[in-house]
Amino acid sequence: MSTARAIAGCGLLLLAGCRARDTRPLVAIVVPSQDNPYFKAEADAAAARALELGYRVRVDAHDDDAYRQDNLVDAAIASNAKILILDNAGTDASISAVRRATRAGIAVFLIDREITARGLAKAQIVSDNDQGARLVAEEFVRSMHDAGSAKSEYAELLGRESDTNAQVRTTGFHAVLDKDAGLTMVAAQSANWSQAEAFSKTETMLQAHGSIRGIVAGNDTMALGAAAAVKSAGLKGVKIVGFDGSPDAVAAIESGAMLATALQPAVLISRLAMDEADALVKTGSTGKPEMQVIPCDLVVKANAGMYVNFEKKQ
Amino acid sequence: MSERSQSRFGTVVLLLLKLRAVLVLGILLLAFSILTPSFLTANNLSILAKHVAISAILAVGMTFVVLAGGIDLSVGSVAGLAGMVAGGLLTVGIGGHLAGVVVSVAAALGVSVAVGLLNGLLVSELGVAPFIATLGTLYIARGAALLLSQGKTFPNLAGTAARGSTGFSTLGQSFLLGVPLPVWLMIAIAGVATVVAARTPFGRHVYAVGGNERAARLAGIRVERVKLLTYCFSGVCAGLVGLIIASQLESAHPATGESFELNAIAAVVLGGTSLMGGRGSIGGSLIGAFVIGVLADGLVMIGVSEFWQIVIKGVVIVMAVTVDQMQTKLQSRMTPAAPRGGRDRAQVAV
Lengths: 314, 350
Fold this sequence. Notes:
The complex is a heterodimer of chains A (about 325) and B (about 350).
Chain A: H1 2-18, E1 26-31, H2 37-52, E2 56-61, H3 66-78, E3 83-86, H4 95-103, E4 107-111, E5 123-127, H5 129-146, E6 152-158, H6 164-177, E7 183-190, H7 195-208, E8 212-217, H8 220-232, E9 239-241, H9 247-255, E10 261-263, H10 266-283, E11 291-294, E12 297-299, E13 307-308, E14 311-312
Parallel strand pairs in A: 1-2, 1-3, 3-4, 4-5, 5-11, 6-7, 6-8, 8-9
Antiparallel strand pairs in A: 10-12, 13-14
Chain B: H1 3-18, H2 20-35, H3 42-67, H4 75-91, H5 101-125, H6 130-149, H7 170-173, E1 175-176, E2 179-180, H8 181-199, H9 201-211, H10 213-218, H11 223-249, H12 260-270, H13 282-301, H14 306-334, H15 345-348
């Protein structure tokens, strides 16, 4: 195994040596995964802007594994990266990796998720999950009341319960939903951000509670799974809301299968991070405070046409 | 206690141990019906069976592999890959030409068989340990699924009538005589598999290869071919599961099926099939799949948190294997020359 790896490594080195030397400074972009449209959009946007600004780019995914993130940060240090754009693998678990990169002279820009330590990263640019969740919940409440009945029952699908964003979103939802006397939550289950799991759990929850009139989901993937389950149960008029603003969810909102979602401005955040990184390299300052919170947009049927791939059309 | 009554007592215990999966299933059904009024309704049982079908179909394929002394860790990834192949052909096509439903389904199953074939060749021809060979193909198939779409989901598999691509949702969403089609598929596959395992020469060869490979070889059984076929069948089952899920969701996601292999193995073990090979049954795996499915759905219905659900599933699996060991010991003590159940380890170590 190790021999095979060594041979492969030598081969890669040779390949790299044969190529003309690229003197552009390197931007390392590390995101949680590339099989999720949100993280992919965020990575693509950062990479595109970095190339525009005249940098070299490398994109990797840590699969929400802090250990793998550590290795990727080491790789960035070893390859003399100038800038690290990181959507990190855990609020506390990522601090040491960020510190190591900063000490090695890499300017670290955190996007999408923050870390608890301040003063290590050059900037932490995140979308406002709490505000977004409240926006969606308010729209949900409005629509449930418009539907007529004074008392309405709903269910919640939570994200992976060990994930900070799952916690922040559910807290934001409940800050609005719990104040409304007409709404009762009859079931809550984690579907681990997964569409297939949301599908089967929603089917089961609808069996246990036939009175469910609405479903609040912690992300769009789960909301789409819930929508498929509602359709499969032959139910009409069940209001489903999600979070993220994925293209599939925007399409579902246009078709009426979903009610609303909060669009996280992933593309905008990535561009901001890259622009500030470029400013830091060229002028020595980002010109912005470390913590930057960007509000989410509410996407409903009326404005769904304005949103593509995690950004608002210009 | 006289020796005779003691042996009668032993027989009763042994019978109870053999029927443990059925007993556990009965207890679970009873408990959940008491706790949730809507549990024992026709509608819920139909949905429950549909959920069970996913892990049951995987478990049936897995049972043959395990009976022949192997293991197939790649099934979850193959399910994901099959969904992506069908999804890609239906919505993107090759060179701008969209494929029809039948072609897409056939291609997806073809790819699944190919992965099974690869597993089989690695194990039987090249002598790679099944655990390692299928761990490798687990990664290969998952990576291939991600590469097909560059990590994106293929949405809108419902198709459009104008392009003649509708009908894919039939597989996962339609009903026959009031029962979901996936449940019929499970029944059909389990039925055929039971007959094949118990009544055909191939079935006996599978048991023989898993029970004592060298003896099987000396008896003239084509061991390689038997192993190859078990992996191919497991691949087909996995592909079918991937297609059912894609059809239910009307979209194909490359991460579909992650850790499904563990559910399938758990169902097989719960059903009393020995991971050493040579002992077990299709019916047992089916009941094992129902135990896992009923537990999962029942706990959701009574509103138990995700974390406890995981713990409880683990406890049930550990208990099942512990009981399995007890049964093996008891059986070998009572009937030293038992042909299947009482194999001791020395025989396996050939």
